Amino acid sequence: MDWTNDSIVEWYDIARKEHVSQKGMNYGINPNYSIILMSRRDNAPYNDCIYPDGVTIEYEGHDVPKDYYKEHDQEAYTSSGGLTENGKFIEAVEHFKKTGVPEKVKVYEKIIPNRWSLKGMFDLVDYKIVNDGKRNVFRFILKLDESDPKNAGDAVDIRELPHTRLIPSSVKQEVYIRDGGKCVLCGSTENLHFDHDLPFSKGGTSLSADNIRILCQKCNLKKSNKIE
Ligand SMILES: [Zn+2]
């Protein structure tokens, strides 16, 4: 199956397709893109930080090793002077500011253990250093690459391209549990994605579970044929 934005996928399939382990930041893991794996634990206080434009997110960098109590500043360099993943992402931002060519970052978000969702392909456009009250952390700013047709939203309707809006992880989690992890129309557990009941272009929101449901690919195709 071809994954699109908001596809629901198993961890096993991500690992096999992308050759990643479960760590948050994976710079340059593919010749064409980096990968970020978002989970509530990673981003706890800033979870679902989606900007009002609906297409920009912030992702908090990674901690120094064994910083279980999150007491230490995040680092761009290792103790031996090499770049950490934070450092590599920062370097990519500097490169973007010089050349205008952003690093592509594919973002997956964890819904429940073993169930993930593809948030989309993003451009890494900036970073900042923020004091969270105890220490300095990096926040990376990623903007949805709306030129990528796979980011069209609702899997097939390319006409919604300019209106793609990100669904917060918390909404996806709520919907996944409410819908029991299966298609609300036929009960299938294959090729699922989070679907906007009323499309954004017709006034539907991404921010409320009331307008999001789980659909399988077949039912989604039927739905879009009806709209035609
Ligand atoms: Zn279905």
The helix/strand order is EHEEHEHEEEHEEH
Protein structure class: alpha+beta
Please, what is the average pLDDT?
88
Kindly state the percentage of residues in helix: 10-25%
Approximate shape: globular
Biggest beta-sheet profile? 7 strands, mixed
Ligand inventory reads: zinc ion
> Which architecture of the domain at 8-162 does the CATH hierarchy give at level 2?
Roll
Distance between termini? 23 Å
Question: What does this molecule look like?
Answer:
The chain is an alpha+beta fold and 228 residues long. The protein has a domain at 8-162: PUA domain-like (Roll). 21% of the residues lie in helices and 29% in strands. The protein has 5 helices and 9 strands. The chain has helices at residues 11-18, 40-43, 85-99, 169-178, 217-227, and strands at 8-10, 25-30, 33-38, 56-60, 103-112, 115-131, 136-144, 192-196, 212-216. The strands form 2 sheets. Strands 1, 2, 3, 4, 5, 6 and 7 form a 7-stranded mixed sheet that branches. The protein starts with 7 loop residues before the first strand and ends with a helix. Residues 155-163 have low confidence and may be disordered. The structure holds zinc ion. Zinc ion is lined by residues 183, 185-186, 188, 215-216, 218-219.
